[in-house]
Amino acid sequence: MKTFIKNKNTISEKDNLLILAKNTDNLSNLNLQKKEINYIKDQLKKDVEIITINQYSRELIILKPKDNHDHYLFLEETRCLGFKVYDQIKKNSYIVIKNLSDGSINTEAFLEGLALSNYNFNEYKTKKDDIKLHTIFVNSSLEDEKLYEIEKIVEAVKLTRDLVNTPFSHLKAIDLANEAQKAGKESGFKTTIFTKNKIESLKMGGLLAVNQGSIDEPTFSILEWKPKNYTNKKPIILVGKGIVYDTGGLSLKPTANSMDIMKVDMAGAGTVIGAMHALANTNVQKHVIGLIPATDNRPSGNAYAPGDVVTMYDKTTVEVLNTDAEGRMILADALSYAQKYDPELVIDLATLTGSAANTIGHFGIVSMQENARKEHDLLAQSGNNTHERLAEMPFWKDYDALIKSDIADIKNLGGPFGGAITAGKFLAHFIKYPWIHLDIAGPAWVSSKYQYRSKGATGMGVRLLYDFIKNKK
Ligand code: BES
Ligand code: ZN
Ligand code: ZN
C-alpha cells in the first residue's frame, strides 16, 4: 500500500500528466492545439478546478486550486485538490505531475493530498480491491530528498490509520507494542516493552486498575529515537493513550452505537508510533521518546469499580467515580514516568473525551498547556502549516476545584461542564515540566470521507508532530 514519490526528468508522450497551473502562460511546450488552449482558458475563467484533455496517447489534467487570500487555506485547498482528482486517476499505475504555476501553487501540498488519498483498509476483505496507483512521479526542481520526506510522512500517516483501523480482535495491548517494535525495526527507533510483571513492580496503579477487568495483560512501551547528532539537550517526549478497546468498564457505555468505534481509543498511541516512524525514517536530528501505556477497558468480576481508590505510580490517590474515564488513569502513570527523563517538553495525545469531540468536531485538535506557552504557539503554527489545527481551551485555576475528592487526593470525574478541560486538569496534576495536552477524540475518526484524510481512521496528528519536532529550535 506504499505510494512511491519520485523525480522523473523526462516526460514521454504516453505519460498521463497532472499539470498545476493558474493560467495558460506556460502551457506552450505541451504541444497543445489552439482550440485546446482556448478551451483551457475558457474553463480557467469559469474557475473550473479540474480540466481534462484527452489526447491520443495520454490524458492531460490541468488543475487549479480555488484561490484563497489566506496562505494556509490555499495550501489546504491544494491538498484537497489532490483528493478531488484522485478518483479520476487511480486507475493508472503511475502518474506524472508538472507544476507550471511559477511557484504560486505548492507542489508539496498537492503531492501530500494526492498520496494521502491513495489509501484503503483492505486487511479483512477476502476479495480485495487493491490500489493500482503505486508511483507518483514529479517533473520539477524538487530535490529527491524532499520527495522522500513526503513519501515517508505519508507512509507514517497510513501506518497510524492501519493501526487505528485494526479491530480489537486483532490488536490487543501486546500486539500494539509489537507493532511499535516492528515499525521501529524498519525506521530505526528502539522499542522496549514492559509486560505485566514489570508494570506491577513499578506500581503503575492507574494502568493496572484499568487492566483489572481485562483477560489480556497490559503493556507499557518506550520508543526511543536518539540519532547521532541530535540537537536538543533534553528529550521531547510523546505520550499516547493506548486503550485498545473502551467498553467503559463497569460504567458501561450505552450499547446503541457508542461502542462501535471504540477500537479508535488507541489513536493517541497510533499517532505517536506514526510520528516516531516518520522522524526516524527521515533521520530528523532530535532526541524523541514515545511512551505508550496500553490495555483494553472492560467489565468483569475483577474490574475496577466506581468508588474505588487507586494509588497511582507517583503515589497520588485517585477516587474512581466513572470507570469510563480510564484514559486519564493510564496517561497519568505515563506522565509521571516521563519525569525521570527530565524532558524539555512532553506532548500527550489521547482520544480522551466526548466533550472535546462535541466542542469542535473533527475539524481540529483540542489543546491545553502548562508551562509551555511558547512551545504551544509553535505547535499551533505547525497546526496551520499542516492544517491539523489546534483549538486551545481555557485552563484557568477555577477548574482545579472540580476534580477535588472527598476521600482521596483527586477524583477521575469533573463537574457537569468542561469535560475536556477537567480531564486535562486531572492530567496536569501529574506533570512538573512544560506540557501540552492534545485531545484528538474528534478528529481521530470520521464516519464519512473527510477529504484526503479518508474514512475511519484519519491519522490526524502525525503530520503536526513531525512538522513541529523537525522545525523546533
Ligand atoms: N474513549 C472515550 C472518549 C471518546 C469519545 C473517544 C468519543 C472517541 C470518541 C473516553 O474514555 C471516555 O469515555 N470519556 C468519557 C469521560 C467521562 C466519563 C468523564 C466521556 O467523554 O464521556
Ligand atoms: Zn472511556
Ligand atoms: Zn477511552
How is this structure best described in words?
Strand 5 (94-99), helix 3 and strand 6 form a beta-alpha-beta unit. The chain is 34% helix and 20% strand. It folds into two domains: 4-142, Leucine Aminopeptidase, subunit E, domain 1 (3-Layer(aba) Sandwich); 153-471, Aminopeptidase, CATH 3.40.630.10. By secondary structure, the chain is of the alpha/beta class. The chain has helices at residues 34-45, 71-89, 107-117, 144-165, 173-187, 196-202, 205-211, 267-281, 327-338, 354-360, 373-386, 419-428, 462-471, and strands at residues 4-7, 17-20, 50-54, 59-63, 94-99, 135-139, 190-194, 219-225, 236-240, 242-246, 288-297, 309-311, 317-319, 345-350, 365-370, 390-392, 410-411, 435-439, 445-446, 456-457. Helix 2 (71-89) packs across helix 3 (107-117), helix 9 runs parallel beside helix 12 and helix 11 (373-386) packs across helix 13. It is built from 13 helices and 20 strands. The longest helix has 22 residues, at 144-165. The mean pLDDT is 97. The strands form four sheets. Strands 7, 8, 9, 10, 11, 14, 15, 16 and 18 form a nine-stranded mixed β-sheet that branches. One zinc ion is lined by residues 246, 248, 324, 326.
Q: What is the rounded distance between the termini? A: 34 Å
Q: Supply the CATH architecture of the largest domain.
A: 3-Layer(aba) Sandwich
Average pLDDT, to the nearest integer?
97
Ions, cofactors and other bound molecules: ligand BES, zinc ion
The CATH class of the largest domain: Alpha Beta
**How many strands appear in the DSSP assignment?**
20
Low-pLDDT runs: none
> Could you give a short account of the major beta sheet?
9 strands, mixed
Q: What do we call the CATH topology of the largest domain?
A: Aminopeptidase
Continuous helix count:
13
Helix content: 25-40%
Output the CATH homologous superfamily of the largest domain.
Zn peptidases
- What is the number of domains? 2
What structural class is derived from the secondary structure elements?
Answer: alpha/beta
Question: Overall 3D geometry?
Answer: elongated
Strand content: 15-25%
Task: Please state the CA-atom Rg, rounded to the nearest Å.
Answer: 24 Å
